[in-house]
Amino acid sequence: MSQAHLLPAPRLSLLLPGSLRQRIAHRLGTLRVPAFTLPATLARVVARLPQQPPAQALVTALNLALDRVLPRDQLEPLIGRNLRMRVSDAGLTLDFSFNERGFHRAKDVLKPDLILSATARDYLALALREEDADTLFFSRRLIMEGDTDLGLLVKNTLDAVDWDALLGRRS
Description:
Elements: H1 18-29, H2 40-48, H3 52-65, E1 82-87, E2 92-99, E3 102-105, E4 114-118, H4 120-127, H5 133-138, E5 143-146, H6 148-160, H7 163-166
Family: Belongs to the UbiT family.
Pathway: Cofactor biosynthesis; ubiquinone biosynthesis
InterPro entries: SCP2_sterol-bd_dom (IPR003033), SCP2_sterol-bd_dom_sf (IPR036527), UbiT (IPR016830)
């Protein structure tokens, strides 16, 4: 039987009764990232690994968001600037830059213009919009070092992102 003759599989959620589907949707909508810290042993191992693969994953994700939710014109002050993202409990240090063509991995950065440091949990909560950058910053869970004007630009750009539009949700 050819692939063209197969019927599409129904979405799993459509197979559930309405009330159960609603309860599951409500429960998933109220889930929060639990408090956690990655083990120090893991951080020591990860810190010794090449940082290129996770840095490349970060710039790839940023480039996919570029022009869709990250307005290129608002990022112009980042052109030629070196940024560093530290995931403190994971032992990751991700260096990247921005130019006219987009984000790219930065190599051999001795003194980045801006360093953002937080735990994996806090970055995840920030990305999922469970926490905002101001709350993390004032509780000293997000640390900014270097050019604070550049840090404010990054923060304000992230705050302006319409994540629901990116995910295809409608209000």
